[in-house]
């Protein structure tokens, strides 16, 4: 798979500190023009089926079509997002992914940070694909960078170990306050549910291992690293649900 395009749609600031609003991030592959009208029709059917089954079950994988026109897809809501928001999210994603990645045989879209929709003409279930990614970070620096980094590393490690517990369905989240950093950090990790415990851990480790590269050398109070099979985010404000936990 060679995904290679990325569109970053939205950036907002508040007056207290810069807050990166919920965003939609997609990675469409540039070089995979859909070869047949049948495959294009199959992608439409697949995406519609995923929108419907993910609305009901919060997670679904599906295949559509036969032979060389067969396509594979996955839909999933972030574990902390409620059913109402999940349905809205996956329906929006279904619309947007076909508009934004209309000529691609493989694409993924994280819609408003709340859900992911993905399709491919190659079978990808259970695989970690580190080749297509996106990142965004806050330009504000922590007050005490080295204390912040220490606190962040510990929190991310705790939250990741939660995500790989099968009962948690790929979701880990938590917060921590440190006097030394003078910040409360909130963090969330989410794997797609087709991944094994081992693959979830692998995907999260790749994402976290890329913090120095993707998160302004970790000199930032907030960052997101997104892949087609996992998501990691931290901020100094609550962003996951319920907002007070
Ligand atoms: C896309 O295809 C063109 C021409 O075939 C090639 O030059 C280019 O390197 C490819 N880009 C990627 C990202 O694979
Ligand atoms: C779902 O979560 C949203 C927050 O995004 C909240 O506004 C809404 O009231 C919640 N709906 C239900 C049914 O709990
Ligand atoms: C998709 O392909 C069609 C037909 O080749 C072309 O007209 C259209 O501009 C392409 N869309 C994008 C987003 O590249
Ligand atoms: C999307 O994935 C490609 C790899 O296929 C990567 O080169 C590109 O940088 C990704 N987009 C962003 C903004 O990271
Ligand atoms: C802690 O942070 C708050 C607000 O961010 C600031 O007003 C306060 O001076 C800081 N305290 C210390 C000891 O750095």
UniProtKB/TrEMBL annotation:
<dbReference type="InterPro" id="IPR050581">
    <property type="entry name" value="CRR_secretory_protein"/>
</dbReference>
<feature type="domain" description="Gnk2-homologous">
    <location>
        <begin position="21"/>
        <end position="124"/>
    </location>
</feature>
<dbReference type="GO" id="GO:0005576">
    <property type="term" value="C:extracellular region"/>
</dbReference>
<comment type="similarity">
    <text>Belongs to the cysteine-rich repeat secretory protein family.</text>
</comment>
<dbReference type="Pfam" id="PF01657">
    <property type="entry name" value="Stress-antifung"/>
</dbReference>
<protein>
    <submittedName>
        <fullName>Cysteine-rich repeat secretory protein 55-like</fullName>
    </submittedName>
</protein>
<feature type="signal peptide">
    <location>
        <begin position="1"/>
        <end position="21"/>
    </location>
</feature>
<keyword id="KW-0677">Repeat</keyword>
<feature type="domain" description="Gnk2-homologous">
    <location>
        <begin position="130"/>
        <end position="239"/>
    </location>
</feature>
<keyword id="KW-0964">Secreted</keyword>
<dbReference type="InterPro" id="IPR002902">
    <property type="entry name" value="GNK2"/>
</dbReference>
<dbReference type="InterPro" id="IPR038408">
    <property type="entry name" value="GNK2_sf"/>
</dbReference>
<keyword id="KW-0732">Signal</keyword>
